[in-house]
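Here is a typical protein record:
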Amino acid sequence: MAETWLPTARHVPSPNHGPRPPGVQPWLVVLHSISLPPGHYGGPHIEQLFTNTLDWDAHPYFQSIRGLEVSAHFLIRRDGELVQFVACERRAWHAGRSSWQGHDNCNDYSIGIELEGLEGTAFADAQYPALAALLATLRAHLPTLRAVAGHEHIAPGRKADPGPGFDWARLIRLTGWPAAWFASTAPAAPTSG
């Protein structure tokens, strides 16, 4: 099977991936939020983290994540730009210790999508249609997809992203998918600043 690299994405291959378990097809999408350093947008640091090229001494925060080897399949920047790091058939390293609907190790059966943002703050308007378009494309290539959850839902108490600034109701409207496929149907909480 040819690996799925979407032509609509900018490709930045990450070395941080592996094979899925035999016979396992992705059926879950996990949404995350990321900014490096936290609250800073638009720089090269996310891509550097996912490609193991981050200068750990470039910012004091980076010492707290020094040596981390992680990835996601996709990143959606604040302006809606789509970046792909790992082919969809491969197992990206985004979920960590996790469980969804009685199934542990979410990396085995999920697609990880990072949204450039910070949990608790609002996401950019351009990210929602970009995410909805990506989900539609993924579903066309991977008809097994049938659930969308946040990192906060698959690792409660350990992770809090994408957080209350993410508008689940808006995403559901844009996708037209059944609300039952989503871990939350809540609109984004008002944020200050």
Q: What stands out?
A: The beta strands are 10-11, 17-19, 28-34, 74-76, 82-84, 90-92, 99-100, 103-104, 110-116, 147-150. The chain has a mean pLDDT of 95. The longest strand covers residues 28-34. The helical segments are 45-50, 127-141, 151-154, 168-175.
